[in-house]
Amino acid sequence: MTDPFKHAPQASAPETSDRNRWLALLVLCTGMLMIVLDATIVNVALPAIQTDLDFSQAGLAWVVNAYLIAFGGLLLLAGRMGDLVGGKRVFLTGLTVFTIASLLCGLATEQWMLIGARFLQGAGGALTSAVSLGMIFTMFTEPGERARALGIFSFVASGGASIGVFAGGVLTETLSWHWIFFVNIPIGIAIVIPALRVLNPSRGLGLRTGADIPGAILVTAALMLGVYTIVKAADNGWGSTRTLSLGALSIILLGLFITRQAMARTPLLPLRLFRSRVLSAANLTMFFMVAPMFGFQFFVALYLQNVLGFSEFETGAGFLPITVMIGAFSLSFAGRLAARFGAYPVIVAGLVMVVVGNLLFVRIPVGGSFVVDVLPSMIIMGAGLGVVFPNIAGLAMASARPEDSGAASGLLNTVQQVGGALGLASLASLAATHTTDLTEKGRGTGEALVGGFHLAFAISTGLAATGLLVALLALRGTSTTEPATEEQKVLVH
């Protein structure tokens, strides 16, 4: 259908020298790397945080989810603000908020302090990352350059998660878990200085156009309540009145948000975006893919430390193979394979690998081996994620109008973060419940813990398979080599 690198939206922007464009890409990617790192850098430190601040296993997921849900809940508003006041202003504001919040996280001595600071971090992360993809599509208009830029950005967005696990292991073991947050402070300051010079100060549409604050409140409340309901289901019971009531309220709030978007003069999320089959299918596929990815980071880190007895440093080093695979495939192979065979078969092949990678973890034993039981899945998962992310992002952004580039970027980021937050909350809660049940039946600690992991990875496999099914049914016919016909352009736009 459409070529994500040829027919993508091109918003008007000041001319930028070739050198400055690549420097700007470096700034945006570095900022994105810091944001993504913080979504996973805590994973290796979770056991230390749990011991130090006395978290329960289900409650521990909130250290990750407080960040993810604020991130996901505010991305749509952040993307819209980028369209209104300019991407550079939103990027710098988010970077400042994120850096200050990192300091507060490192200083936390109570559960509520850490969770609150993580929520603030997520807000800063939303502002920073929501506008990054749209700015890249504006700066790079030549198809080959755009493909390279998108491949680099996709590696940072996906591979950064695994880099975060490694960095978390090093910092936690050599210093303390507090330093996984303190390290962001000098990095944030170092990014601001070049960002002021190399990022284009685009004017945007103007605040008078409207930012739909009521819509932002509704969607943020709906997502936060949804994740809270899932996390607390481990304690309250999945079929309890409290769980069902809160879940219903979350759905009602989401319904009110959709109604608001249909009626608002300047909606936060223009519903016309979903007229594009490609954009809708790409986002839905992404939604079902990110939950297995976030679950993988969370549960494998716990498995390596709590079952195999790895130290924080060894756990971090153990995640290097998947980082290398994601980097190799997103930077070197994703664009080339799509240019030769088309986006559709490449995405399908990548999703098959994600399914297989999760399926292999369903059988992890208590007395497992890293080389035999973990490494093969990491290699397969890394290759799959490396080719899927750039092509899914390219297809989604190619389907948006120029004036909606910020909203489309915010939507794609929202789907990633919300899918990860809801997926991780569900998986962590279900795994904890199953572990408790097995313990009550007399199973040993290690066997019960691994039993919970088995259930989590079985569900992850089902979610990844659902994403594969969506791609098979709805993305068939997409191509990165053939230009779109006029009829296809009408369908997409």
Core attributes:
single chain, mainly alpha, Growth Hormone, Chain: A, MFS
Note the topology:
Layout: H1 18-40, H2 42-53, H3 57-85, H4 87-106, H5 111-130, H6 132-139, H7 143-174, H8 179-182, H9 184-198, H10 213-236, H11 241-263, H12 277-307, H13 312-318, H14 320-341, H15 343-361, H16 370-398, H17 405-440, H18 445-474, H19 486-492
Helix pairs in contact: 1-5, 1-7, 1-9, 2-3, 2-7, 2-12, 3-4, 3-5, 3-10, 3-17, 4-5, 4-9, 6-17, 7-13, 7-14, 7-16, 10-11, 10-17, 12-16, 12-17, 12-18, 14-15, 14-16, 15-16, 15-18, 17-18
3D structure, described in words:
This protein has 493 residues and is an all-alpha fold. It folds into two domains: 18-199 and 268-492, Growth Hormone, Chain: A, CATH 1.20.1250; 213-267. 79% of the residues lie in helices and 0% in strands. The chain is built from 19 helices and no strands. It has helices at residues 18-40, 42-53, 57-85, 87-106, 111-130, 132-139, 143-174, 179-182, 184-198, 213-236, 241-263, 277-307, 312-318, 320-341, 343-361, 370-398, 405-440, 445-474, 486-492. Helix 3 packs antiparallel against helix 4 (87-106), helix 3 (57-85) runs parallel beside helix 5 (111-130) and helix 17 runs antiparallel to helix 18. The two termini are 12 Å apart. Residues 1-16 and 480-493 have low confidence and may be disordered. InterPro entries: EmrB-like, MFS, MFS_dom, MFS_trans_sf.
